[in-house]
Fold this sequence. Notes:
Mean pLDDT of chain B: 91
Number of helices of chain B: 12
Oligomer: heterodimer
Largest sheet of chain A: none
Structural class of chain A: mainly alpha
Strand content of chain A: under 5%
Amino acid sequence: MKLSKSLLNAILVAVTAGTIISCQKPKVDDGKKPGTEKSKKSGVPVSCPACGMG
Amino acid sequence: MSKIFSSISCNLDEDILSAALPLFETEKVEAIEWSFDTLFKFGNIPDWFIELLQTFGKENRLIGHGVYFSLFSGRWSKQQQGWLTHLEKVSAAFQFDHISEHFGFMTGKNFHDGAPISIPFTANTLAIGRDRLKRIYHSCKCPVGLENLAFSYSLEEVKKHGEFLDELVEPVNGFIILDLHNLYCQVHNFNIEFDDLIRLFPLHRVREIHVSGGSWEESGIIPGKKIRRDTHDDAVPEEVFRLLEACMPMCPYLKYVVLEQLGNGLDTEHKRKLFRCDFIKLDAIVKKEKNLRRLTGENTFLPSKNIIPVQPPEDKLLHVQQLTLSNILETAANYSHAVHLLQSSILSNSDWETEKWDVFMLETAIAIAQKWKHGFN
């Protein structure tokens, strides 16, 4: 499906500027309090696993 | 002739979007599936992601895939009510063509922790599942469906899964997501022929097919036994593509074929390239099938009526059993310890039939529950 150039540019900027993160990894029990450096970044959306938890 | 859309699972994830961007640029992606309940820590979704969802939504090419509703939890929770409220809001904001959820209940103590695990197929669980699907429909007002689960405790359970799914979705005239990698897991884990397994599923209810990769894990109990797991962190096996080719003609109402991969499997450019190659392969199979597809009648996958009781039905015993099982799976030091705990728990000699569970699947259940018990980063 065709997406507008402005939308494609916005996605490109977001993935290259690091304004979103990849965080779909199970949280390792390291004895620390919940939250990681990435997820603590103010305003950075955090997405949890969509599927694949089998 | 209805069109089948070559689709990707698309969430707000840097690696997924990096992998998908060249496919978007070349107009290859015909529909997207968004897990609308996975963004919960921050209320503000970037404008461009909203535009992406709305662009596909306006063309009736946006589908929603829930993860955390925990359909079969014995006790109705505030979080489930909140999940429905959230669904109602996102359904008003975005035009979903359908909404789906996973089979099973979530093992975690807290919402968004844990992983989906199967339940006994009983009249009580059937009643709970049907009630919850009606509530989902009430919130989204579009077709509602369920995905087959990769995990099963035994071969007997694998064989009953399709029929139980059919019974579950029947009151809402719902659909089934046929996850081919989940079936691939079961074919390998339980040594069952795919041709025998696929016949046990209500293929007239399949509106969506999932294609993904996974991983192998050595059993620590049975020497030489390899367990296939649905981890979505690797490329799609060739065998799964062959299953796609075999299945598509059997599913007269198929509308979406979705490539799913987690962001953690797309953290290098090489892996992202493999993802795109998988999508091109998937698209070629879908396009080929379009030319051969039989004409079929219409199914709206909408219920003729949807009456739900004010109070959601609950099963307190099931709830306690689920808490017990979650606790055992999350805390057992090893397989033998888990067996000992199960034998001395209320799950022993119950509908759960823990005595019949395959050794390597209990081992896998422990691994799954302990992997996800703290949620995600």
